[in-house]
Design goal:
Elements lengths: L1 E3 L19 E8 L1 H4 L2 H20 L2 H5 L2 E4 L6 E2 L9 H15 L1 H4 L4 E6 L8 E3 L30 E5 L8 H9 L26 E6 L2 E6 L6 H4 L5 E3 L17 H13 L12 E11 L5 E9 L9 E7 L7 E7 L4 E6 L4 E9 L2 E2 L7 E3 L10
Parallel strand pairs: 2-3, 2-4, 2-5, 5-7, 9-10
Antiparallel strand pairs: 1-15, 6-7, 8-9, 11-12, 12-15, 13-14, 13-16, 16-17, 16-18
Helix pairs in contact: 2-6
């Protein structure tokens, strides 16, 4: 076990930096090991990201919102590199998000939105999006602009979604969940609860049209109207690969999710812009100081590092430990951003320590360098 003798945290107000506004939403695909192990899933994962761009462009969103979409990393999903667990898609999304945060994958690719692509045989859903509370809410929804006319409250909490690439209509899933992240809603009546506002506006619903064709009723659905019954079910569902807009005939006065997407698109395009340009801490090092405990089994060490040259005030440094070595790093404690050292003690097994920097709720990836706190000194005679 490893612990700390120093714990001090003071929030520092981060308000002194401004950037030119961005008009491009940068989307990063992240694939789980279940996808990477299957060639067809991997190919479909890349295609799903391109279908997202096609749906956006096909709805003339660049013209209506003045915002385009680009898939970073050359359009290829970044392997998560770790196995995720969970009995539901939501649990697996939370597990993947924790790994993404620890690795700093989003920050490294300067992504506004992260789309996790999974292949999970136990799920009963095809996707899930962590939509902003202010845009999808159990209370009144609202868009709260800042001095630049943007609402970026979701930049650290509502930038990610997950899809299950196994679903039969996987092509439309990325556009579906992406639309939720921008305040778009399901069809009218799809979400229960009198106090639940499923989209930014009352008309932020997706459009569904029912027609009679060849003696059968067919459901024509727009992107955010895709639900389980259509995504993984009957062939009587006909996709319309666009967001609903009554101006062009694919919507009505209660089903026009384009209006919400136009309102929020530029805010989402600046999620990454509103994150401090952080750099990983560097030169992580340390040294053994003394042993304690009546049987000399606790080794005390002094840990130090250097700020990476971000050019902003750091709120806090997080210390992550790996013990036993080779089992993966876990968060252990934090120190104030003005500190670049900490006292630690280790017992039971040697441990490795890495550091990351955080500002305004956003953190870098873990430092490339690490310090290995050994235990064996305390087992020597004479201590």
């Amino acid at each position: 076990m490893i612990s700390r003798t120093l714990f001090f945290l003071v929030a520092v107000l981060f308000s002194s930096i401004s950037w030119p506004l961005d008009n491009t939403i940068r989307v990063l695909g992240v694939s789980t090991s279940a996808v990477d192990a299957n060639a067809d899933y991997k190919a479909n994962a890349e295609s799903a990201l391109q279908y997202l761009v096609q749906g956006w462009n096909g709805s003339n969103m660049p013209g209506k919102a003045g915002v385009s979409i680009t898939i970073v990393n050359g359009g290829v999903p970044v392997p998560l590199g770790s196995t995720i667990t969970g009995s539901t898609l939501l649990q697996r999304m939370d597990a993947a998000e924790a790994i993404i945060k620890a690795q700093g994958v989003r920050y490294d690719h300067q992504a506004d939105i992260v789309l996790i692509i999974d292949a999970f045989t136990g799920t009963t859903k095809c996707g899930h999006a962590q939509a902003p509370d202010g845009w999808v809410s159990t209370g009144e929804t609202e868009f709260i602009p800042d001095a630049n006319g943007l609402d970026t409250r979701g930049k650290n909490t509502s930038y990610f979604a997950i899809i299950d690439i196994r679903c039969s209509r996987w092509q439309y899933l990325a556009g579906h969940e992406f639309g939720h992240l921008l305040g778009g809603a399901h069809p009218v009546g799809f979400d229960a609860g009198p106090d639940f506002h499923p989209g930014l506006y009352d008309d932020s619903h997706a459009w569904v049209e029912y027609i009679s064709l060849m003696g059968a009723t067919r459901e024509i659905f727009t992107l955010i109207a895709t639900n389980r019954s259509c995504l993984d079910g009957p062939s009587l569902c006909v996709p319309n690969h666009r967001y609903s807009d009554n101006i062009v005939g694919w919507g009505n006065n209660s089903s026009e999710n384009v209006r919400a997407l136009v309102k929020t698109a530029k805010s989402v395009a600046n999620y990454d812009n509103y994150i401090a340009p952080l750099k990983k801490p560097k030169n992580v090092s340390g040294f053994f100081t003394y042993c304690s405990d009546s049987v000399n089994t606790v080794a005390h060490h002094a840990l130090s590092w250097k700020e990476g040259g971000s050019g902003v005030d750091i709120d806090e440094f997080e210390i992550w430990t790996e013990q036993p070595i080779g089992t993966g790093y876990n968060y252990d404690w934090s120190v104030d951003g003005s500190e670049t050292d900490s006292s630690v003690y280790v017992y039971g097994a040697p441990a490795r320590l890495k550091v990351r920097a955080c500002v305004d709720g956003t953190c870098t990836g873990l430092s490339d360098s690490f310090y290995q706190a050994e235990l064996y000194y305390c087992n020597q005679p004479g201590w």
